[in-house]
What does this fold into?
Amino acid sequence: QVHLVESGGGLVQPGGSLRLSCEVSRSFCKIYSVGWYHQPPGGQRELVATDDGYSGPYAESVRGRFAMSRDDAEFTVYLQMNSLNQDDTGVYFCNVRLCSELGPLYWGQGIEVTVSS
It folds into this structure.
C-alpha cells in the first residue's frame, strides 16, 4: 500500500526557514503531481503550492517565500519555506497523485509547523 511520510516540521522563529519532506513509499508508478496544504489552528485546510497545472502554483500568501521541488528518483517531494511568520503556523499536508492526471491521490499524515519567538 502506498504510504506518504512527512518530516521536517517543528518550531522556528519568525523569519526562519524550514524544509518539509514527503517521501512516497511502495509507489507502483511515477509521481504525476504534488500538492502542499496548510491548515492553521482552528482553520480549514488550504492549498499553498501545487504543480498539477490547474491551480497555483503558489498561493498568494506564500508566493516568493515557499518553493516546491521534487526528486522523482527518490520518490520524495519537498517544500522549502523561507521568511516564516506566525500566520504560517499550523499543520502541513502533502498529497501526491500517481501515474497520470487521473491517477490515485494519496495524502501524508500532516506535520506541525510552529512559528514563534
